[in-house]
Amino acid sequence: MTATANLSNPVGIELDVVFPRNTTYNNMTTPPIVFTLQNAPTAVFFEYRIDWELNSDDAYFFMSNIFDESNNRKNFNYTSGTTAVLADSVYWGDNLDAGSYTLSWSYTTTTCDHLGDSTLIQTGDVAAGKLYFTVVDDGSGTDLSFTGCPDYLGNIMAKTASEACPSLISKGWKPQPCSTKLNEKQVRCLDTYFDGKTDMDACESGFDDINTGDKVEWKYAKQAQKTHNQVGDPSTTSSGSSSNNTSSPGGTSNSSHDSTGESEPNNESDDSGDRSLGSAHRPGLRFAIIAALVAAMVFS
Q1: Origin, by domain of life (predicted)?
Q2: Distances (CA, A) of 299 to 27, 221, 239, 285
Q3: Fewer beta carbons under 10 A from the terminal one: N or C of the chain?
Q4: Per-residue pLDDT of the chain in tens (300 residues, 90 and over written 9)
């Protein structure tokens, strides 16, 4: 993913979720967590961190991890145009059993404000929210799928201005989650990636920064292949499978449980993150600002 961005015109950095969405799913093992990040080069330019947490009180489940601009090859993190697909999962073998689940997320970046001759640098959550879904064990739910429009989560807006560093202001934004809908090649790439047998032809066709000779393989590929061989089950696709197996490359917390048409998302988002985290005074930014910027954050 390129770390430069053309900021001559206003640009929105939008976070959407491909899986899970606000619906009812059948129980599944090692489910993925898949986000899309619009205008990812700009997000990298500002520097970002996305924290996610999946939990269920009634199913006794907890898992969390992060994405940021520095772990492009630790997790599945590839772009098509200016949209990045960020894919992670729970730990190998963990199940989502019947129950109610919450996917919490936060978007962290660095902002600044001028204070006389100095600049106040603040790093903290500038966007956060929750998405709710349920899991059933009677087969009446939806199987795992990467198709269809993602659910909108949140947005940060950046535009040129007379200031020398990005600052947060309030501005309206129209969500555009369907603009990041995965195409057939991208779905195939993710399906086979999570099955442990990545279709590199599909991945090369679906993403700009996957080239011939690259190896796109997740941490638990061998375990997934072994599981398929033991049960005599060929690689499945997300169009109708609830048994896609995925990895947690670089997980940051543990699960406490080792078993396991577009709709309006039942999501909550807010901008009440603690922007005081990592505050510091200094005369300039720690990263080069090519153009004068103002960053705007909004939720719908």
Answers
A1: Eukaryota
A2: 31, 37, 30, 26
A3: C
A4: 545 555 555 567 899 999 999 999 999 998 999 999 998 988 888 788 999 999 998 889 999 999 988 765 567 899 999 999 999 988 888 999 999 999 999 999 877 766 777 767 777 788 899 999 999 999 999 999 999 999 999 987 765 433 445 565 556 678 999 999 999 999 999 999 999 899 999 999 999 999 988 989 877 788 888 887 776 655 444 443 333 333 333 444 443 333 333 444 456 655 433 333 333 333 344 443 433 344 444 444
Locus of tokens 């093992």: 29
| Tokens coding 174 | 């129209």
